[in-house]
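Closing statement on the zinc ion sub-project.
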Amino acid sequence: MEGRLHLLPVVVNGVGMVFLVLLPLTHLVPAMTPSGGATPRIHTGFGDWLGSEGYPLLSRHRGVDIASRMGADVLAAADGRVTVARDNRDLCGLIVVIDHDPGNPHSYRTVYCHFSEIAVRVGDSVKRGQRIGAVGTSGQRAFPGFEHVHLELQKGRDINAIEDNLAQIAGCFDAATVYPADRLMLTYPVKC
Ligand SMILES: [Zn+2]
């Protein structure tokens, strides 16, 4: 019994070590190496339990954290109309929401978080690839090197009807490409 009690702090420290040191290290190494590819690095995927820096989240990740740098342009992921542009005063921080089929109760909306500056207003029509603001660390503060756009995809009026937007991302925005108009196709919300 005595021996077991003495083991407990060792186990707690071991588990803490994994979650607070080793997992963050596994996120730090890729964050510091150049992505090498044409597409931006994804710090945290949809449904993940670890945040961009590798620390545990209190709930599953609602979107995708797309790596960028402070002050870089945030781009609309598809055509639509701005329905939210404000400081949310929560973990999202400065937020923009774009409705991709305004008026349709089942339409898709993209949600962008952590801006340092918002460049659109509610009611604005935006085109895919248009600058809607600048990357920042408002809300959930990112460590240096982990600055990102949190992109979320919601369907219909329910803010909890979230989907994995990475599955809908066709690639980087290219002004010369003709994108389909009959279904939602997203492009990365940062320049590649
Ligand atoms: Zn996020």
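The chain has one domain: 2-168. With this model delivered, the sub-project is considered complete and its resources will be redirected to Aim 3.
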